[in-house]
Specification:
Length: about 450
């Protein structure tokens, strides 16, 4: 090998080593190759809707009271019953948000819409299978050609941090809010998902629904400046009617449904784990390509480092997918809107009528604890090595081969039922096996 070639290899190797070290030990630099977050065009639901608006295939109707909100929800197939009201000033339109005028949030499986009374824009975050969370605004001024404007950096100041697994993502925050809606950050905040203790949830949110003896932080504000955390949880408990707290007339629904909130909490972080696994696999493959070229190795050679990175991200995804560490409900939960009723009708069902969207709400969120987002474009868009890893590990868990503590919450019936549902409703994802029969099977010990 010539001296020039040796120097070239040395430089490439050094760059690749530094790149791999940074990627393995810190937040992924998603502004560079291979992600190029802000440079890449998106194929998310909002980008698709914009194309339909441009061609005249779809049209946004303007409403005198709520601007484009009702029409946007209809075009994106987002149910009004998903409405939740958040009064903490945790939006960039914070000056127009307060306990008297909360922001309304609506969502479906891949898009989130934020509406503020007399707001300048509608706030939107959605999911692209390759980029993760993508953020937009839509002006609330009536226009003959309404246009979604993609965010170029403002949103990810908060939406790309450890709270979102270090990638552009979604999050639900619980804060101690004062009477104006200002978060009292000195008393701490909570990033909320299905693992969160009930008592840490929904600070700065209105919550309508029954939850028995469990208590949360919703529906109340901090009254003491020196002790913001001294809130009256009893006052905010088991609220069925929000009218005594806020004027609900300006909103599409009179509710801020507790079941919608719980589903939202699960869904936001599930999307983030998909994005993390996607970024890790693609970044690792990019690193391998550099190293393979430098050492003239086969272009498809996969390093042990890449295998470890895929396994690490894949395991996090798997545990969250199967609700490892989920907070156990100690009282039944009931909502106040049609959200739960409408939510369970979506998605595929197996020949026994079972669905991963079936709600439990007695001791846990779902009857069959495996995320319904396994059917989502974000999951299907994962790099093949990640999907192969997750499918292999999922098969080990559901077959009973894996009895490690992370999955001890899954009973033999849970494992069998989830396996049967997936085999029928996501063909080819898991292998068929003898335990796919609905006949009860004995417990398999590890």
């Amino acid at each position: 090998m010539t001296l020039a070639r040796l120097l070239s290899v040395a430089v490439i190797t050094l760059v690749a080593w530094l790149y791999g070290s940074l990627q393995a030990g810190a937040q992924i630099d998603f502004e560079r190759a291979p992600i190029n977050y802000h440079e890449q065009s998106s194929n998310d639901p909002i980008a698709q809707l914009q194309k339909a608006l441009d061609t005249g295939e779809s049209k946004l109707e303007y409403d005198a009271e709520r601007g484009y909100l009702p029409s946007l929800l209809k075009l994106l197939d987002i149910p009004q019953a998903s409405q939740m009201l958040v009064f903490s000033k945790t939006s960039f339109q914070l000056r127009k948000i307060s306990p008297l005028r909360p922001r309304a949030i609506y969502f479906n499986d891949d898009s989130y819409i934020g509406w503020v009374q007399r707001g300048d824009v509608i706030e939107i975050s959605t999911v692209d299978p390759q980029l993760g969370a993508v953020f937009y605004t839509l002006s609330q001024e009536e226009s003959s050609a309404p246009r979604f404007v993609r965010d170029r950096g403002q949103c990810i100041a908060c939406h790309a941090s450890s709270r979102t697994q270090g990638v552009p993502g979604h999050l639900v925050r619980s804060v101690f809010s004062d009477r104006s809606g200002q978060p009292q950050l000195g008393s701490g905040t909570f990033t909320t998902d299905h693992q969160s203790p009930f008592e840490e949830r929904w600070g700065g949110w209105y919550v309508s629904g029954e939850h028995g003896a469990m208590r949360h932080m919703g529906n109340v504000v901090s009254e003491e400046r020196d002790r913001p955390e001294a809130i009256d949880r009893e006052k905010g408990a088991n609220v069925l009617d929000l009218a005594p707290f806020v004027d609900v007339a300006p909103y599409l629904q009179p509710t801020s449904d507790i079941v919608a909130l719980m589903v939202l909490e699960h869904q936001t972080q599930m999307h983030n784990y998909f994005t993390l696994a996607n970024y890790e696999a693609r970044s690792a493959a990019h690193y391998d390509a550099v190293m393979n070229e430098a050492f003239q190795r086969p272009s498809d050679q996969i390093s042990e480092t890449t295998e470890r990175r895929i396994a690490s991200a894949g395991e996090k995804l798997l545990e969250y997918l199967l609700f490892s560490g989920e907070f156990a409900l100690t009282s039944p939960v009931h909502g106040t809107s049609k959200f739960a009723e409408e939510f369970v009708t979506e998605g595929p069902r197996d020949s026994q009528g079972r669905s991963l969207r079936d709600l439990d709400l007695q001791t846990r969120l779902f009857k069959h604890p495996c995320s319904y987002l396994v059917y989502s474009p974000a999951f299907d868009g994962l790099p093949q090595p990640v999907k192969d890893y997750v499918a292999k590990r999922l098969n080990q868990v559901l077959s009973g081969e894996d009895q490690t503590p992370a999955f001890s919450h899954l009973s033999p019936d849970d494992r069998r039922n989830i396996r049967q549902i997936l085999q029928e409703t996501k063909p080819g994802f898991l292998p068929q096996s003898a335990d796919s029969s609905p006949t009860p099977q004995p417990e398999i010990s590890g």
